[in-house]
Amino acid sequence: MAVRIAAAAPRGLRRLFSTHTFVPPPLTQAATATPPAEPSTNLFVSGLSKRTTSEKLHEAFAAHGEVVHARVVTDRVSGFSKGFGFVRYATLEDAANGIKGMDGKVVESSLSFQLPADN
After folding, report:
1. What 3-state DSSP class applies to 109?
2. pTM of the complete model
3. Where are the alpha helices (DSSP H) in 24-112?
4. Digits of tens for pLDDT over the chain (119 positions)?
5. Buried (b) or exposed (e) across 8-41, using 16+ Cβ within 10 A?
6. Strands, DSSP E only, in 7-119?
């Protein structure tokens, strides 16, 4: 029985003090490229002020197309905006016009919409 304990100890120590490092396989071009996103009529809007309401969001984006629904996500306790919301347009063309029209714009010195930066 003493032989088994002695034989098991070095194996555990070898694993603990091993100098072998894991090298992940190289990434292929297909694995690193992200597929393009499908166009959508639902837009994510960030950078909103705490005082922004769904009505103000609707008015700001309605200038660039037919807005079906606009919603600012609010905190349950305080009722203030969490700083982001969603705008849904009637068509893809209206959504594209809304993105072009509102990208980087500031409305009422509190509402801004920006496209995510490409890496």
Report:
1. coil
2. 0.61
3. 29-32, 54-62, 92-102
4. 444 444 444 555 666 666 667 777 777 766 566 777 788 899 999 888 888 889 999 999 999 999 999 999 999 999 889 989 999 999 999 999 999 998 887 656 544 556 665 54
5. eeeeeeeeeeeeeeeeeeeeeeeeeeeeeeeeeb
6. 42-46, 67-74, 81-89, 106-107, 111-112
